[in-house]
Amino acid sequence: MENIIAVKNKIKPSLERLVPGVVFALLIIQPLLDIISYWANQWEFTSVTTAVRFLMFAVIMLYGFIVSDRKRIYVVTGAAVAVYWVLHMAACFKAEGGYISPVSDASNFLRIIHLPLFTLAFVTFFKKDADVPHYVRKAFLVNLVIMIHSVILSYMTGTQVYMYGYMGVGLMGWSAVHNAQSAILALVVPLTLLYAYKKKNKLGFYLVSLAVFVCLFFSGTRVDFYSIPIIAVALIIGLIFTGEKNPFYYIVLLLMVLGALLCYKTSIAYDIRGNHEVSMEYRQEEVEQMLEVAEDDKETAVTLGANITREIYDSLDPLTRKNINTIYDRYLGGMIHRYGFDRVFYKYNYSLVVSNLVDMRQQKRFFSEMAWENADLFSKCFGFEYQVVVENYDRVNIVTGETIPTQQIYDLENDFPAVYYFGGYVGFGLYMLFLLYFVLMMAVAVITRFKKVVNVESIAVGLTFVLAMGIAYYAGYVLRRPNTSVYLSAILAYIYYLTAIKENVKLTDIFKLFSKNRDF
Known about the structure:
Elements: H1 2-17, H2 19-43, H3 46-67, H4 71-94, H5 102-128, H6 132-156, E1 162-164, E2 169-171, H7 178-198, H8 202-219, H9 222-242, H10 247-262, H11 268-290, H12 298-303, H13 310-315, H14 318-339, H15 341-347, H16 354-357, H17 360-374, H18 377-382, E3 390-396, E4 403-409, H19 415-448, H20 450-453, H21 456-474, H22 482-501
Antiparallel strand pairs: 1-2, 3-4
Helix pairs in contact: 2-3, 2-6, 3-5, 4-5, 5-22, 6-7, 7-8, 7-9, 7-21, 7-22, 8-9, 8-10, 9-10, 9-21, 14-15, 19-21, 19-22, 21-22
């Protein structure tokens, strides 16, 4: 026993010395894994890269457990996750149709819990070494450099990938998931600029700022474009609170804001929006042609161009009703196969507006909402399985008459509804409490130690968190994508470092604010 303890006491300090390097390696490997995943998709061996990511997840959690001084937290967290998973599986078995695919459901569950568990490990790393924040900032900069080189090399080799392939626009490099790459790009920028600023090299700061602006502007997504003024303005505010007197840094950031505003109408984001509107107008005209009614019924014809009521639908001639069914089947075939035309027609409020019907985010949300309506109370408490949002059906080609087996996946893109439906009341509540903890830590720190904690570093970190939450809500691909959520895990741990570790902030400090005996 004494020998075991001696070995343990010898190994742990050695592993602790590796913490900054492990954190740096863990972060910079992420874009490299994304590149490998892209080529894995091309060569059809994605199972290998998925296994590598989950193996890395297991190794990091084990490493965090070994070097941690509070192993009980890991044990309690692991036990809570295990208990919840058992109850979730019980809900899936009890649901109508039984547990269809435990494997795909387990994979989805691991993607959801990746963020909180990795955050636990990152918090351990921040506690172990004061150099970890520096390595995190440095890693974010290196990752941006890797992504830029990915774009350059893809063009040099003629294997470039576009964010919007049908238009051939939007710089992305080798990445398999466009929306995730867009989110990652926005999330690495604040700490990248912070790293460049802390170096106090004007030329370096200018070049990094220029690279950041070019990447965000030519990405083409609204997420990245709108991030430019948000990030620049927030960092300007951070510089003011830091007491920065050199106007150079303000001017560079201000130029980013002005560049985004003045060049908006020449941006890819603007063109994409315009092309979408034109496409919707064309499709709407096609629908209205299908819904033409008798010449003497002008009023009904106008009504059919927008939304109708059930009464109007029932009063239409059989051919017009058939055409409405055809339109819905064209755009919402999977939903109709699962829930029937009448229920889907009602869910869309009898809409005949094409832009409403083709909105994939809305389709996925409505599909999950109807599945939720079908679920029993136990399933609503612990969530339904992933296979619930997968619909397999046969589609008939109206030209050839050929029957085509079709699979439609209605997995929600927006993260918060996805966590809600897959996690249920209990899972979603625990997840929100987890995120709320860091929000409250920031709030308490700002209220009780404003002058100490509000500076360019804390604003850059807080801004990254806010961007992540905004992207998760409006676009998704943050909370349930391990290649994206790992960045958020690092940021949440960074928040813990700036508050609980560096300034000894506790949530209960808010109650001491007006106390004479306060110790802050």
